[in-house]
Amino acid sequence: MVFNALDTGAVGTALVSFIFFLALHVIVLRLRRAASAFHVLVASCVIFGVIDAMLWLWLIIAGSSRTGYEQSDVAVAGIASLVLYGLLCFDYVIGWFNLGETARRIRLLRELARAPRQTMTADEVVRAYSADMIVNARLERLVGSGQLRKDGERYTLSGRVFLRQAQALGLLKALIPPPGGHTLSR
Amino acid sequence: MIYIGSSLAMFVTMWLLHVLWFRANPPRTRVQALLVLFFAGLLLFAVALTWTAQRLPVNGAPLPATALALYVLLSFAYIIIYTAVEVDSPSALIILLVSERGERGMTFAELRQVLTDDNLVMARMRDLVSVGSVIASGNHFQLSPRGLRIARVFAFYRDLLGRGLGG
User: Fold this and answer.
1) B62-79: b (≥16 Cβ within 10 Å) or e
2) CA distance B66 to chain A (A)
3) How far apart are CA B115 and CA B94, in angstroms?
4) For residues A15 and A24, what is the distance between their CA atoms, to the nearest angstrom?
5) What would the DSSP string read from start to end of A95-111?
6) Per-residue pLDDT for A137 more than 80?
7) First to last CA, chain A
8) ipTM entry
9) Residue A9 above 60 pLDDT?
10) Which of A77, A112, A141 sits opposite B147 (nearest CB)?
11) Do residues A100 and B90 make contact, with C-beta atoms less than 8 angstroms apart?
């Protein structure tokens, strides 16, 4: 398999943009601890996506005499680079960042790591990390992201994005039933 | 363009194979099975791209590395999404529960009647025991060496970000 400059350029610019995205979101989250992680991640991703797009636009405008490739080929490589970059950001945020941010299993492991002799009873586990804390944290995030509205004591739906995601996941579950059915019957 | 299209076609083919396989005879360790399936697809795709580059005329500049990277990243994205099929997300459950109630919505207390300590916390602890990250002994749970490694990696990562325990 032979790789050409356009090909390695598409993968390379996506990787370099992703590395800058990683550095920027770490710096901003460290400097502004109260900032919404969601907004910092989206803004960091968009900034380097735009820079990547500008670079490829410049290469398209430069023309085939300077790049040695047809403009249409450069455009395809540029779009592919942006798609790769977007997927890198998606995979990182959903597959890694979210694990640390919201995964209950990671939180439980960290609670056990902090406990004396790294051992806890079931009661101690629930005192350290309870359903109250989990539901409260989710409600806060869902209200903060505009998916739920709080009127007095009641929470009602105000956005459709998370609902559509949950429904799409329901379709996937119907297509490929999870082991032992749903883990939490309603 | 044909390279990008072939990457998408390969991903869709492997996804369809996965659906057929998981519906007909679900494997015991599903995420590992998915990793093996999509990795086999990657090898097959790399061979196909090499064969194509040597034998078939392709319009435009060839993009084999881009096509392979696209396939890998799409596969990872799908596997990450698939993990949400196996474990119900509390946020998704809250959204679905509140949505079902329409204009009335739900209070925290009503949500807590459904989302209990057992199904939100202890069910996850039992998962950790089943994968060997935690050792259960009577009413006690102890971190295994594997669990400790994972906890340390995330402690380092969360400290780097300057964020708390999470969860």
Assistant:
1) bbbbbbbbbbbbbbbbbb
2) 6
3) 9
4) 14
5) IIIHHHHH-HHHHHHHH
6) yes
7) 52
8) 0.88
9) yes
10) A112
11) no
